[in-house]
């Protein structure tokens, strides 16, 4: 199984790349942001709870997110592998993912991190906000808060996977195809 953690700050291009990579490598793509947005749209209990955090640019609590991720993985017993997009975002989530995959006799193959400068991220997210309908993309202070949360809580996961020799940084600036090619080079070494 190939289990990729697609990593990087908000706006780095994880979702865009995941769409191409899932076809190319026949992987199941799980985006925690997409699952939350689906639940918000359908006004489920999970959605109402998640919205209260997401609209402020904060993380949804670990317990809620971990349970949701476990359920998404369980929905795909036939998967050849997964692309985790937006998960893990905290050390507790990384531990939970390791535990889940170990229980299935597999593991995280690699963390592929898209590297993009902060000012480019803010520009991309404001641009996306014009058409995405995402409240968290429309407001520059919410965007800056998401980037700050990334550095405070999420960026340490680089060390977590680096210590296991599983961290691969990829330049996230360029055309979509160029970036897919850079990521593919990493996947092909696994
Ligand atoms: P981004 O474009 O900021 O990377 P996502 O679409 O992945 O955003 O997620 C949107 C929001 O959903 C995040 O800002 C956060 O509030 C919440 N969220 C997504 N994934 C997680 C997670 N693993 N843990 C906690 N909250 C999450």
Shape: globular
Strand content: 5-15%
Work out the number of β strands: 5
Helix percent band: 55-70%
For this structure, what is the CATH class? Alpha Beta
Topology:
Elements: E1 2-7, H1 14-25, E2 28-31, H2 32-41, H3 45-54, H4 62-74, E3 81-85, H5 91-103, E4 110-115, H6 118-132, H7 135-138, H8 140-154, H9 157-162, E5 167-171, H10 176-187
Parallel strand pairs: 1-3, 1-4, 2-3, 4-5
The chain binds adenosine-5'-diphosphate.
Residues 10-11, 32-33, 36, 53-54, 58-60, 65, 86-87, 89, 93, 136, 146 line the site of adenosine-5'-diphosphate (ADP).
Architecture overview:
The chain is globular, with a radius of gyration of 16 Å. α4 runs parallel beside α5 (91-103) and α6 (118-132) packs across α8. The chain has a single domain (2-181), classed as 3-Layer(aba) Sandwich (Rossmann fold). The protein is built from 10 helices and 5 strands, in the order βαβαααβαβααααβα. The protein is α/β, with parallel strands linked by helices. A 5-stranded parallel β-sheet has the order 2-3-1-4-5, with helices on both faces. The termini are close together. The site of adenosine-5'-diphosphate has 17 residues, from α2 and α3.
